[in-house]
Amino acid sequence: MKFGKYLSENAVAKWRLYYLDYTRLKDLIKDHTKHGKVHRSNKQFEAEFLAAIEVELDKVNDFFCMTERQLSMKLDSFKTLVSHEHFTISTPEALYDEMDFCAQSLNDLAQYTRVNFTGFGKIMKKHDRHTGLIGMPWFMLRLKEQPFHTNSRQFSRLLIKFSDACSACRKALGAHEQSVDVEEGGFHGFQRDTTKYWVKLSDVMAVKTFIARHLPVYIYTSDFGRSLKEEDKTDAALISSCYYDNPESFPCYQSRIRKDEGAIAVRFRVYENSKEVFVERKTHHQNWVMENSIKERFDLNEPDVYDFVRGNYTVEDYNSHLQQRGKSAAEREAACKLFESVHEQISEMSLRPSVTTVYRRTAFQIAGDARVRISLDTDLTMVKEMQRFTKEPPRWKRDPASVPERDIHEFPYAVLEVKLQTHKGVEPPEWVQKLVEGPLVQKAEHFSKFGHGTAVLFNNRAPLLPKWWPQFEHDHEKLIRFANGEEISDEDDDVKKPEKGGGAFMDDLEPEDEGGMLDYSDGDLLVPMQDLGPNGKRKYRPLGSAKKSVSLWQRINNAWNFAYHESGKPIVVDMKIEPKTYFANERTFIQWISFCVVIQAIGIALISYPSKHLFGVIAGVMFIMMSLLFMIYSILMFRWRAVRIANQQPGRYDDKWGPLALVTVLGAAVLVNLAFFAYERISPEQPTY
After folding, report:
1. Is residue 586's pLDDT more than 80?
2. How far apart are CA 265 and CA 195, in angstroms?
3. Global pTM value
4. Distance between CA atoms of 283 and 584, rounded to whole angstroms?
5. Cα 651 from Cα 659, distance rounded (Å)
6. Of 112, 142, 109, nearest in space to 124 by CA
7. Which whole-number Å values give the CA distances from 253 to 258, 310, 451, 469, 602, in the listed order?
């Protein structure tokens, strides 16, 4: 889609005058470059173009700040009005209409920032392509620091005010939301049912406002973490989680994506501005165990984490630390028990840092009420760890400042988690059903940040692919075009569709040429284009675009495994399996073998029975060969079912052709034997062999 059309279709009509003047900036570039490309020495055009960009930035920022202040004042006034003790409601619909109006205003403002952000990026890309200079990297970093950017604190404060106003409206309508002080720290256990969804980045604000109408934004506090100052409050908290796994066989990754009974995940979680690290262990339990999956955690001071994983920080040291914090004997006992258990698993399984996930989480929940809890994770980034302890601090994971671009994967969606109380008889609210069944979200059942990060960042070594891999692959061409800046084309661009590849995703994209770091030390805002793409932007390609050669042994192994494969790797598909299913498969196999043994015995008897002709021998050989063939068939069917059960693949498990083939072949053998018998009876006497 050309950007001019995109701008006209997505611009908020009432604010069209205050969008960036994309046409003016484009004409400025064309007028200056129509007789040839600009050289680095030409500072006049640089100054003129950057001045024009600054004018447009100021226009967009000024309008955004003005609109943000107006909306903020309106939300404050609305909350004050409905919170007044003498406030009366004429009709509930009036309150609902006002909440809808405020939500639409927030969504319009988010749409305004998104379109302008895209426009600035497109015009700078056009500048780099036509002039041979590079301004895109510098300008995009500066653009993300502008007040109108969607991650700015203004949007966070607006969402919090909108949530507070909606809470006041619900209270005025008779809803009771009791707040309970909830603090982090110490030992906690969680038991929840969770369903996950993907949300397009363009729909994030719409999802947030929809949820905030029914649940308040939950800003949890900690003695060690986020500030409680009013001016510092934001709707989203930055969370970093480092997952540990064995670098050789990835046992945690495999068991988690297969949903094996007792599958564990060990991670070290850090919250924004926190001085402590939470050591968490998630354990999966299947339904037939009659236990819920559980998450357990205890906290450590950040300097003690490396000593903990190496075994130098003992349980006695940790117990003393808890005593100093005034924890009770019961709390200390539970925390120390978990401390020892997690350390034992890290040591025995040789777990090392594998994948780190970083994201901003907005939580919606009535404090102290876990019946409905919703979280939305945005700006999700996955970092490839070294799978060993580093020499530089913090040592138990990589220093974020030292991670190269090729080891970072930016997930192209936001992740929505809907957590509901699991008690029987409790139905989810109607508005939750409307959200999850609506067009704003796409179900991604059992999606795991750890699993996805491992599959992407260790693509060549991961032995299995997760269940959602084909679902994510479906739109890979669109995601590649987006990564290359071609999803929304310039006015004079001829966008070519990338060639179809084998399993390319936006998260599988890596630079074609790593090159070196750009040097801005000479003070120039724009530098000459060297090893980058023709548009001045690093080009991306799918990791799986070229067909990977699969060895003959791998092909044979895949055929024997009977699993659903992609690029030579099985894909896990979810299905509930109970232990008795395995025994049922074995019983079926034994029944087939037993019947084959009976047929084989009949054949041996026919061979051994004396007859006038060779007809008895021929019939006996036929029965024996038939029994051997069906023995081979039964072992193949047994293996086919066993692998599908182990991989939890849905579909039909019954044998459509085996029984029919058995009846047909056995009937034919009996008819042939009868024909031989009849022929022997009516034929003249022959010597007996």
Report:
1. yes
2. 18
3. 0.72
4. 28
5. 19
6. 142
7. 9, 22, 6, 14, 51
Q: At what angle do helices 251-258 and 449-457 cross, to 10 degrees?
A: 130
Report residue 435 as tokens: 């959200």
Tokens of 671: 């008819």
440: which residues sit within 8 A by CB, 6+ positions away? 199, 200, 203, 206, 207, 210
Q: For the segment 218-252, what is each residue's pLDDT rounded down to a tens digit?
A: 886 554 444 445 666 788 889 999 999 999 999 99
**CA 55, CA 31: separation in Å to the nearest integer?**
19
Per-residue pLDDT reduced to its tens digit, 255-311: 998 888 899 999 999 998 888 999 999 998 877 666 778 899 999 999 999 999 999
**Nearest partner of 235 among 416, 376, 432, judged by Cα:** 376
Residue 241 tokens, joined: 């989680």
Q: In sequence order, which residues have a C-beta less than 8 Å from that of residue 376 and are 6 or more positions away?
A: 199, 204, 207, 208, 211, 361, 362, 364, 414, 415, 416, 417
**Which residue type, as a one-letter code, is found at position 13?**
A
* Element at 279 (helix H, strand E): strand 276-283
Which three-class secondary structure state does DSSP give residue 362?
strand
Cα(384)–Cα(456) distance, integer angstroms: 9
pLDDT at 69: 93
- Residue at token pair 């994209």: 509
Cα end-to-end span (Å), the chain: 87
Q: How far apart are CA 243 and CA 253, in angstroms?
A: 10
Sign (positive or negative) of CA dihedral 371, 376, 382, 388: negative
Q: What number of other Cβ atoms are within 10 A of residue 103's Cβ?
A: 19
Query: What is the C-alpha separation between 378 and 363, in angstroms, rounded?
Result: 11
User: What is the number of alpha carbons within 13 Å of residue 31 lying toward its C-beta?
Assistant: 9
Inter-CA distances, 250 with 350, 353, 397, 460, 646, Å:
10, 11, 17, 12, 17
pLDDT value of residue 475: 54
User: In Å, what is the CA distance from 316 to each residue of 185, 300, 337?
Assistant: 19, 13, 11
Our CA dihedral for 643, 648, 652, 653, rounded to 10 degrees, sits at 40
Model confidence at 558, pLDDT cuts 50, 70, 90, reads low
Amino acid of residue 23 = T
| DSSP 8-state code for residue 170 | H
